[in-house]
Amino acid sequence: MSRFNDADDPRRRLLIQALAAGAFGGGWATEALADIFGTPPSKLPPGQSIYRLSGTVTVNDKPATMKTQIGPSDTIVTGKGSEIVFVSGVNSYIVRDSSRLQLQGRQDGGSVITSALRLLTGRLLAVMGKAPNGLRIESTTATIGIRGTGVYMEADPEETYFCTCYGVADIASAKDPSSKDTVVATHHDKPLYILADPKAAGNNIRRAPFKNHTDQELMLIETLVGRTPPFVFPGQDYDAPRRDY
Q1: SS3 137
Q2: Which domain holds residue 123?
Q3: What pLDDT, on the 0 to 100 scale, is given for residue 112?
Q4: Residue 22 lies in a domain
């Protein structure tokens, strides 16, 4: 399993040192983060939704630009070889290529309240802040309830890959309610496949390998909403206020 703590990439060690030092503001950390991410990450200012955009991306069937605002009930679609990194409320996302993500939520005064995500196809990395009633993630084969969690998901019509990167997730097969599991994770502890096999009642959730996402990406999107992942400062409450870079 390739995780952030692997010692084979000195840039990973550099990044964790920068985070621990709170050094996103400038100097050597700025250069290191620019080398890793292209642009040094920081909390997005009010009124900006998108941090990075490449290829063909639409929001509600309209071409996205860096000035596009993403609302609580928008649909994001990425084309082949495309990607978007964006923020909506206290949540932050990377939507990879060939994906279709539907947000479900509402505007409550100056706050965005997200109640559900539906990944119809494709791949999604997301970090969610604390929500009053939790948040639901759906795919064709899975229904997942989460609370203050970082997750990675790949969806296709036959199966869903789901990694609870940290936090708590209540996972069930959409086609087989008897297949369910609750995962409490601190660092990618129990990735799963959620299937839709009518002949496998009670066994449509199976262990899976860790794949296709990194701790650097989690650190990036947490930074965009002013937080750090719990594995950076172990022992701290993930829902507690985080430093604002």
Answers
A1: strand
A2: 50-213
A3: 86
A4: yes
- Specify whether 126 is located in the same domain as 81: yes
Looking at the fold, whether 81 and 145 belong to one and the same domain comes out as: yes
Q: pLDDT for 48-89, tens place per residue?
A: 999 999 999 999 999 999 999 999 999 999 999 999 999 999
**Domains: count for the chain:** 2
Token pair 């040094």 is found at: 40
Nearest to 233 by CA among 198, 186, 180: 186
Q: Which residues contact 45 (CB under 8 A, 6 or more apart)?
A: none
Retrieve residue 75's tokens.
């649909």
Q: pTM for the full model? A: 0.82
Asked if residue 201 and residue 231 are part of one domain, the reply reads no
Tell me whether residue 45 is in a domain: no
**Phi, psi angles (nearest 5°) of residue 160:** -120, 135
DSSP one-letter string for 60-96 = TTEE--TT----TT-EEEE-TT-EEEEEETTEEEEE-
Distance CA 138, CA 85 (A): 20
The model's pLDDT over 180-221, given as tens digits with 9 standing for 90+, comes to 999 999 999 999 999 989 899 999 999 999 999 999 999 999
